[in-house]
Write a structure and sequence with these properties.
Blueprint: E1 4-12, H1 16-24, H2 26-32, E2 37-39, E3 47-51, E4 57-67, E5 71-78, H3 82-85, E6 90-99, E7 102-111, H4 117-139
Antiparallel strand pairs: 1-7, 2-3, 3-4, 4-5, 5-6, 6-7
């Protein structure tokens, strides 16, 4: 079966530990993820939910792998767009690697489908979210205040 995949690499002036906290801390996440946050206990096999500011569930899944502060692998299901939900589960991997005083973050989001509405969607979403994350960690402020395609 053919896979659809989106890979995004970003370099952040931070430490692996600070980046890990930014990726897993509910209150910090709200700052760069347009008010959204993740509900999870961050253990292998645990469920997770990404909630909109009004409490609706955007995405959900299961923690497949967790190795702080190096790697996080999520089984991912879109819950708010029927055409994306119909595609079933995808996989999202966060790899964190220290390189010469900065941190390389690689986000790989993939699904076992030749063509995918979900991958089209995350291809627009991840760059916005990760730009906000980078800016917040480096300067204390986000680049964008809202993500218009999540309403």
């Amino acid at each position: 079966m053919t896979k659809s995949e989106f890979v995004y690499v970003i370099y952040i002036r931070s430490t692996p530990e600070k980046l890990w906290t930014a990726l897993t801390n509910k209150e910090f996440m709200k700052q760069y993820w347009f008010g959204m946050h993740c509900e999870c206990d961050w253990k292998v096999g645990s469920s997770w939910k990404l909630a909109f500011t009004d409490g609706r569930i955007a995405d959900s899944g299961e923690i497949l792998e967790i190795d702080p502060p190096k790697r996080l692998v999520l089984k991912w299901l879109n819950e708010w767009k029927p055409e994306m939900n119909a595609e079933g589960y995808s996989c999202c991997t966060f790899d964190i690697e220290p390189i010469a005083g900065v941190v390389k973050l690689t986000v790989t989001h993939s699904i076992d489908r030749a063509s995918s509405k979900l991958i089209e969607g995350v291809s627009g979403g991840w760059p916005k979210i990760l730009s906000n994350l980078k800016s917040l960690l480096e300067t204390g402020a986000v680049v964008m205040l809202e993500k218009t395609d999540c309403k």
